[in-house]
Design a protein that fits this description.
The complex is a heterodimer of chains A (about 280) and B (about 250).
Chain A lengths: L2 H40 L5 H5 L13 H31 L4 H15 L2 H16 L4 H26 L2 H9 L4 H12 L1 H16 L3 H4 L19 H9 L4 H31 L5
Helix pairs in contact in A: 1-12, 3-4, 3-6, 3-9, 3-11, 4-6, 5-6, 6-9, 7-8, 9-12, 11-12
Chain B lengths: L3 E12 L2 E12 L3 E5 L6 H8 L9 E9 L2 E2 L5 H7 E4 L11 H5 L1 H4 L7 H14 L3 H4 L12 H14 L4 E5 L7 H14 L4 E5 L3 H7 L2 E6 L2 E7 H6 L4 H7 L5
Helix pairs in contact in B: 5-7, 7-8
The chains are: A mainly alpha (about 280), B alpha/beta (about 250).
Chain lengths: ~280, ~250
C-alpha cells in the first residue's frame, strides 16, 4: 500500500469522526437551548412569594403558584400510590413466569398502553371516572397519571427482577423459606434500587403531563387539597397562563416552567445517584 | 457399619420424560463425609438436590422413591420442613447481598419469621461463624454487608448460614469449584471439622479433594449408582470397571 493511500485513509477517518461528534452534539443542543431559554425567561419570576402564595385575581400584581405546586404533588402521590403496587406486581409476575400466556399478554398490553397518546388516556379518564362521579376531581387526574406511569414501572420492575440471579432465590428456598417470603424478603429488596429508579423516572414522566389532566383534574383557580374536587397542577397552570392575554401571567408561566424543568432534572439526577450508589453486588 | 442417618430406597429422578437418576439405593452413615463423584452429566447434582427436595423446583422435574431420614420419608413431608433439616451450600457463594453478615447468618430464622431474643441470636451468630472458621475475620464487621468479603469468606459465610439453623445434614454442591486453591484448602479443612456436628454429603469433581476429605465415596455413572463404599477402598480397589477407568482418568 502506498503512503498517499494511507494518508487518504486517515483523513477520511478524521472527517468521519468529526461528523459523528458534530451530529451527537446536535442531539443535545436543543436541550441546552430549552433549559437556557426557560431559565432566562423564568428565573426572574421566581422568588419566595412565587412558590409560597396562591394566585391573585386578574389585575392585581404578585401572587404565586402554590396551589399548582400542591396540586401537582397531590396528583403525583395519588398516581404513585395506585401505580406502584400494580406495576411491581405485574413486573414480578412476568419476571417469575416469563413463558406463560398471561405474561405475554401483560407485556403486549404494557407496550400498547405506553404507546397510547396521553390525550386518549385523558378522555378515558373522563368517561370512566369524571362522568360517573359527576364532576372533575384530583382523584380522576391521579388515576389518569397512574395509567401513564404504569408501563415504566412494569418494565423496569421486570428487567430488574429478572437480573437477580437464581442462586439468590435458591439460597433462600434451601433454608426452608416459603416461596412468598422468598419473594417478599429476598427478591424484592434485592431489586429495590432498580424498582425505585423506575418509579422516579415514571414520576418525571408524568410531572409534565398536561393532556390527561385537561379532562380529569381540570385545574382550579383556588387553593384546594380535596382529592374529590378539581385541582390545579403545574402543567395546567402553564397552559392556562401562557394562553392568556396578560403579560404578567406569561411571566408566571415561564417561572412555573422553570420550576417544572428543575424538578424533572433533579428527579433524573436522583435516579443516576441511586443506580450508582445502591448498586448491589451479587 | 455405623448407624445410618439417611437412606434412599428406589430413588428415581427425572427431567421431563427422561430419568436422570435410576433406582438409587444408598445409606449415608451419621457424622461422616460422603463424596459423590462421577463424570459430567452423570446425575451427581440431581441426586444431591433430590435429597432436600430442591430438584422438584426445576420445571418439569421430579423424583419418586423413598428418602428416609431416621424413620421419616422425606418425600411425604413438606419441602420446607425437609430443607430446614437438610441444609445446602452451593457451587458459587450466594450470601444475601442486601443483608449484613450478622443477618446473613441468622437468615434462616429471620426469613422464616422465627423470633428469638437478641442474646440468643448473638450466640447463634458467634457459634455458627466459629464453626465455619470465619469468626476471627469478621467479628468486628458483623453489621456490615458481606459484599466486601472474598469468595472463600463468602462461601464460609454461606456454610455458617446453613449451620445456624442446626441441620442434621449439609449438602454441598462442588463448594470449592469457584474458589482459589488457598480458599479451597481452608474450606476442605472446615468440612472435615464439621463432621463432628453434622453429616456432610458433597458433590465434587476433584478426585484429590474427595481423597483428602471424604470417608465414603459414591460413584455415579449415567444416573446409576455404580459403587458406594469407604473412600480408601473405592480408590485403591474399585469393584467396578467403570469406576476404575474414571479414577485412572480414562473417562471423565
Amino acid at each position: 500500500m502506498t503512503e498517499t493511500n494511507l494518508k487518504i485513509r486517515s483523513i477520511k477517518n478524521i472527517i468521519f469522526r468529526t461528523i459523528i461528534i458534530g451530529v451527537a452534539l446536535l442531539a443535545i443542543l436543543p436541550l441546552f437551548f430549552i433549559i437556557f431559554y426557560v431559565i432566562k425567561e423564568g428565573l426572574s419570576a421566581i422568588n419566595w412569594e412565587f412558590i409560597s402564595s396562591v394566585a391573585k385575581p386578574i389585575g392585581e400584581s404578585g401572587g404565586g403558584i402554590l396551589s399548582a405546586l400542591v396540586g401537582s404533588s397531590i396528583l403525583i402521590v395519588i398516581a404513585v400510590i395506585i401505580a406502584i403496587p400494580i406495576g411491581i406486581s405485574a413486573g414480578l409476575y412476568i419476571s417469575e413466569h416469563s413463558d406463560s400466556k398471561l405474561s405475554s399478554m401483560i407485556r403486549l398490553s404494557v407496550e400498547v398502553l405506553q404507546g397510547t397518546p396521553s390525550i386518549v388516556i385523558g378522555i378515558i379518564g373522563y368517561f370512566w371516572f369524571v362522568k360517573p362521579m359527576g364532576h372533575f376531581s384530583a382523584l380522576s387526574g391521579g388515576i389518569a397519571l397512574a395509567l401513564m406511569m404504569l408501563p415504566m414501572i412494569v418494565k423496569t420492575a421486570e428487567e430488574t427482577l429478572r437480573m437477580i440471579p437464581f442462586s439468590l432465590k435458591e439460597a433462600s428456598l434451601a433454608l426452608g423459606v416459603p416461596y412468598y417470603k422468598t419473594i417478599l424478603k429476598v427478591i424484592l429488596p434485592a431489586g429495590l434500587s432498580g424498582i425505585m429508579t423506575g418509579v422516579i423516572i415514571g414520576i418525571a414522566r408524568i410531572a409534565g403531563e398536561t393532556a390527561p389532566l385537561l379532562f380529569t383534574a381540570f385545574g382550579n383557580a383556588f387553593f384546594s387539597t380535596n382529592i374529590l374536587k378539581p385541582i390545579d397542577s403545574l402543567p395546567l397552570l402553564i397552559f392556562n397562563y401562557a394562553t392568556s392575554p396578560y403579560t404578567d401571567w406569561h411571566k408566571m408561566a415561564w417561572g412555573a416552567s422553570t420550576v417544572l424543568i428543575f424538578f424533572i432534572l433533579i428527579l433524573n439526577i436522583t435516579t443516576r445517584i441511586i443506580v450508582n450508589k445502591w448498586k448491589i453486588k451479587y | 457399619m455405623e448407624n445410618q442417618i439417611l437412606t434412599t430406597e428406589n430413588l428415581f429422578a427425572h427431567y421431563g420424560d427422561i430419568d436422570t437418576i435410576k433406582n438409587v439405593n444408598v445409606s449415608f452413615p451419621k457424622n461422616s463425609i460422603t463424596a459423590i463423584m462421577g463424570p459430567s452429566g452423570c446425575g451427581k447434582t440431581t441426586f444431591l438436590r433430590c435429597l432436600n427436595r430442591m430438584h422438584e423446583l426445576t420445571p418439569n422435574a421430579g423424583s419418586r422413591g423413598k428418602i428416609i431420614l431416621h424413620d421419616e420419608d422425606l418425600n411425604k413431608l413438606e419441602p420446607i420442613e425437609v430443607r430446614r433439616k437438610i441444609g445446602m451450600v452451593f457451587q458459587r457463594p450466594n450470601p444475601f447481598p442486601t443483608m449484613t453478615i450478622y443477618d446473613n447468618v441468622i437468615a434462616g430464622y429471620k426469613l422464616n419469621g422465627i423470633r428469638k431474643k437478641r442474646i440468643e441470636f448473638d450466640h447463634i451468630v458467634e457459634d455458627s461463624l466459629k464453626k465455619a472458621g470465619l469468626w476471627e475475620e469478621v467479628k468486628n464487621n458483623l453489621h456490615k454487608k458481606g459484599s466486601f468479603l472474598s469468595g472463600g469468606q463468602q462461601q464460609r459465610l454461606c456454610i455458617a448460614r446453613a449451620l445456624a439453623v442446626n441441620p442434621e445434614i449439609i449438602l454441598m454442591d462442588e463448594p470449592t469449584s469457584a474458589l482459589d486453591p488457598i480458599a479451597t484448602k481452608i474450606i476442605e479443612e472446615l468440612i472435615v471439622e464439621l463432621k463432628n456436628t453434622v453429616t456432610v454429603i458433597m458433590v465434587t469433581h476433584n478426585l484429590a479433594q474427595a481423597g483428602r476429605v471424604s470417608d465414603y465415596t459414591a460413584f455415579f455413572y449415567l444416573g446409576d449408582l455404580l459403587e458406594f463404599g469407604q473412600t480408601e477402598k473405592v480408590f485403591t480397589n474399585p469393584k467396578n470397571e467403570i469406576t476404575e477407568k474414571f479414577l485412572t482418568g480414562k473417562i471423565g
